[in-house]
Every structure is written in C-alpha cells, then in structure tokens.
Amino acid sequence: MSITIRQVQLSELAVLQAISRETFADTFGPFNTARNIQAYLNRAYSSEQLTTELQTENSKFYFLFVNHQLAGYLKLNVETAQSEPMPATHLEVERIYIRQPFKRQGLGTRLIDFAVLEATNQAKTHLWLGVWEHNDAAQQFYRRMGFQPFSEHVFHIGQASQRDLLMSRRLAK
C-alpha cells in the first residue's frame, strides 16, 4: 500500500470542498437532522470559507492518498489560527477525516503521526484537538494515541449545540 501525505493547494479548493462535505456528512449525518447538517455544510465548507482557511498563514491542509486515491485529509493550526486560545507551544489538529472506504486501515494513526512530526519540527510541546462527546470510537482512538481530556467547548451544527471534549498530548522533547 502506497501512502502519500501532501499539502493542499488553493487550486484544489473544489476537491477539498468535496471531501470535507462527504466526510463530515458521513460522520455526523446519522446523529443530526438533514437541515442542520446542510446548514453546517453550507457555512463551514463554502468556497469562500475554505478559500479563507487555505489562505490563513498559520493553517495548513493536507491530503492523504492511498495508492494515488484520495483517502482523507487533515487540517493543522498554530498560533492565532487555533480555534481556541492556546499557547504558541501548541499545535491544533482541527480536522482529521478518513473517507468511508479507507477506514480501519491505520490511516488515522498515520495522520496523527504526521501531525506529531509537524509539531516537533516546529518545536511545539503539545498537540491538541476537539472530539464530539458522543464519538466514543474517536475518543478511544485518541486515548490510544496518547491524548487526554483537558477541557470542552460548544460546537454548533446548524441550530444544534453540541459538546466537544478537548484532548491534548504532550510531545517528547
């Protein structure tokens, strides 16, 4: 199996938009109303919003390919681009999604390992992320990857307010 991770370019906006909408709807659609999911997709993954995010200096998106097929993506934030106020020593994994046909192949681990490498290369001491309180499988995965809960925040999907657990992992020096 050939695995490649590379940074997303602005010229790939349509591909990023498509995988973002697909993976978010697959992950959260069964637990929310169609109306709330559609409202979220329209706001969070509009061309304008994703263009802004792609052009944000302290944010980077990465595509994950398996045998040259797009399998998932990752968004990392540092400094002022983080979605919560955090020290400059922290790197945020804001989005980590794997397409359905590629799940359970160790690709989430590959993306977390990539995030750890990026954080280490930038001399960051912590990696952190938010995970939906009812996504038990993801929480278990993050715990296996060394993350521990440290706080929470509210996440809005359309008209619905939901709670995310914030989890952090201290990186080796």
Automatic annotation (TrEMBL):
Work out whether the entry's keyword set contains Glycoprotein: no
Q: Which Pfam families match?
A: Acetyltransf_1
Q: Which PROSITE patterns match?
A: GNAT (PS51186)
Q: Which GO-annotated molecular functions does the record name?
A: acyltransferase activity, transferring groups other than amino-acyl groups
**Which ranges carry the N-acetyltransferase domain?**
3-172
Q: Which InterPro entries match?
A: Acyl_CoA_acyltransferase, Bact_Acetyltransf, GNAT_dom
Protein name, per record: GNAT family N-acetyltransferase
Phylogenetic placement of the source organism: Bacteria, Bacillati, Bacillota, Bacilli, Lactobacillales
